[in-house]
């Protein structure tokens, strides 16, 4: 039988795993807008942004850019048929599927569904871990002074180790295997805790068992 000390060890490792999971699921900070390096803007005599006669901004990357721009404007434009024969994709509208997408229409959709499933699985893991720690801290820990329980801190240590591996590699087959293993480990922690509470002849643990069963039910059903 174990008292509050063993539960505190378990809670500490579960809370560490929770922080790791939350950091792994946090969105990346947006990239800063790149500053123009060699682009120069020439003004036509007006203050502020440079504008030409049509009110459009002119940007030249090198001294000979103005002459090249004028030659491109005078050059004959390709007909749509010529653009298609040459394989030019620039004339396709942004929403029009590219040939490589037409060749493999299910690829992009499959990847999107896979990423969505992984995010959902991570969210379920974070939610269940958070609720478990809350129940242990607020409901279970005060009662262990009177009724010690057979606890299993080693499962919580293993759970934290798995989450630490996941934080180092956030994608790929190894990440998916670790995510599945983390789900199984947390499920075992909750089930063993419910079994430990069931052998204690005290009505004080009934609300805690109900709370743990609810966590497990939501965790498996989502």
UniProtKB/TrEMBL annotation:
Stretches with biased composition (Basic and acidic residues): 71-84, 97-109
Top-rank lineage group of the source organism: Eukaryota
Region (Disordered): 25-109
Protein name, per record: LEU7 protein
Organism: Corythaeola cristata (Great blue turaco)
Gene: Dleu7
């Amino acid at each position: 039988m174990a008292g509050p000390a063993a539960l505190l060890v378990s809670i500490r490792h579960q809370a560490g795993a929770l922080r790791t999971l939350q950091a792994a699921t946090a969105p990346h900070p947006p990239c800063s807008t790149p500053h123009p390096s060699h682009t120069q803007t020439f003004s036509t005599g007006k203050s502020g942004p440079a504008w030409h006669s049509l009110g459009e901004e002119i940007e030249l990357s090198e001294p000979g850019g103005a002459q090249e721009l004028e030659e491109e404007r005078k050059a004959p434009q390709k007909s749509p048929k010529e653009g298609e024969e040459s394989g030019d994709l620039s004339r396709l509208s942004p929403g029009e599927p590219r040939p490589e997408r037409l060749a493999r229409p299910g690829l992009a959709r499959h990847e999107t569904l896979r990423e969505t499933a992984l995010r959902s699985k991570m969210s379920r893991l974070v939610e269940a871990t958070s609720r478990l720690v809350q129940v242990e801290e607020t409901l279970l820990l005060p009662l262990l002074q009177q009724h010690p329980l057979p606890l299993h801190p080693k499962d919580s240590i293993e759970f934290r180790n798995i989450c630490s591996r996941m934080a180092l590699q956030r994608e790929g087959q190894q990440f998916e295997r670790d995510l599945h293993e983390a789900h199984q480990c947390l499920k075992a922690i909750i089930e063993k805790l419910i079994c430990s509470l069931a052998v204690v002849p005290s009505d004080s643990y009934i609300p805690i068992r109900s709370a743990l069963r609810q966590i497990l039910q939501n965790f498996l059903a989502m």
